């Protein structure tokens, strides 16, 4: 796993995406809470992949999709 608890590039990347979406939606008199969750997740995932060397210190990363949830616990 590449994500550390206090990974500054991780939080900077997520913040950049959220601020961008907030500004886009602000033009429609809406805010970030108007954005569908899956859209936000997709945009954050794309940004994390683009910034993977800064965030994970690796060129190759593997995105693991959830295949099911059991009482909120990830099941792969």
Characterization of this structure:
- With 76 residues, this protein is mainly α.
- It has one domain (8-75).
- 50% of the residues lie in helices and 8% in strands.
- The protein is built from three helices and two strands; from the N terminus they run H-H-H-E-E.
- Strands 1-2 form a two-stranded antiparallel ribbon.
- Strand 1 and strand 2 (73-75) form a beta hairpin.
- Helix 1 (8-26) crosses helix 2.
- The longest helix has 19 residues, at 8-26.
- It is globular.
- The two termini are 15 Å apart.
- The model has no long low-confidence stretch (mean pLDDT 82).
Descriptive labels:
single chain, 76 residues, mainly alpha, 3 helices, 8% strand
Task: Present the secondary structure layout.
Layout: H1 8-26, H2 37-50, H3 52-56, E1 68-70, E2 73-75
Antiparallel strand pairs: 1-2
Helix pairs in contact: 1-2
Stretches where pLDDT is under 50 for at least 5 consecutive residues are: none
Order of helices and strands: HHHEE
Overall mean confidence score, pLDDT: 82
Strand content: 5-15%
* Helix proportion: 40-55%
Return the domain count: 1
**Shape estimate:** globular
Q: What is the radius of gyration computed over CA atoms, rounded to a whole number of angstroms?
A: 14 Å
For the record, give the distance between the C-alpha atoms at the N and C termini, rounded to a whole number: 15 Å
Largest sheet: 2 strands, antiparallel
In the sheet with the most strands, the strands line up as: 1-2
The chain-level structural class is mainly alpha
Question: What is the number of beta strands?
Answer: 2
Total count of helical runs of at least 4 residues: 3
């Amino acid at each position: 796993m590449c994500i550390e608890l206090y990974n500054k590039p991780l939080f900077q990347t997520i913040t950049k995406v959220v601020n961008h979406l907030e500004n886009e939606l602000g033009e429609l008199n809406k805010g970030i809470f108007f954005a569908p969750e899956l859209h936000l997740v997709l945009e954050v995932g794309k940004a994390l992949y683009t910034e993977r060397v800064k965030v994970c210190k690796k060129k190759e990363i593997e995105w693991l999709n959830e295949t099911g949830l059991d009482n909120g616990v990830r099941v792969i």
